[in-house]
Amino acid sequence: LVAKQSLHVYAPLANRLGIFWIKAELEDHAFQILEPDQYYQLKKLVAKKRNERSALVESMSRQIRQTLRKAGLNHQVYGRYKRFYSIHEKLQKVDQQFERIQDLIALRILLDDVADCYAALSYIHEQWPHNEDRFKDYITQPKPNGYQSLHTTVTTLGGDDVEIQAMSEIYDRAIEIYAYDTKPMKTFHESNEEDT
Description:
- By secondary structure, this protein is an alpha+beta fold.
- It is built from 7 helices and 6 strands.
- The chain has helices at 2-17, 20-34, 36-48, 50-70, 84-93, 114-127, 169-179; strands at residues 75-81, 105-111, 136-137, 150-155, 161-168, 188-191.
- The chain has a 6-stranded mixed sheet.
- Strand 4 and strand 5 (161-168) form a beta hairpin.
- The chain is globular and about 55 Å long.
């Protein structure tokens, strides 16, 4: 009963309030309790190519930092992995075909202001081919919970699809103060310092 309430009441409420890490934690824990077989099967699928995805995140982060540094844009790059329940939901939309999920990983770029978000996106689209159908402008049309960011999906030379999110650092700080008060995001952080 508690797991069902977490999934259908508390997680949507956390999302509505913009407390994304609580939403994600509630969904994943409820999924593990309510559908353990599917949860562990999905966990195995995700684990199979974890090293490849980690290498891709590192490589794309480095290339984005180089591109934006040359453009003179102050920035930070974070990597994140799609949560299990979110993958589970997406699988239902793609006929359970795991290989069709395009955003198992995503990179978030923090920039000084909104103008820099659009500029960064322009430079990224010059560097990599992108999927027009997957571009979303949540800055001009924020989500109901106030989320504001630019989303695009680019294709690497190796044929991998990577979602990229660009948002202003001011907005990210507001999220962090409000939503991540005592719990940091489960991501690694890459700054725009020179690569070694």
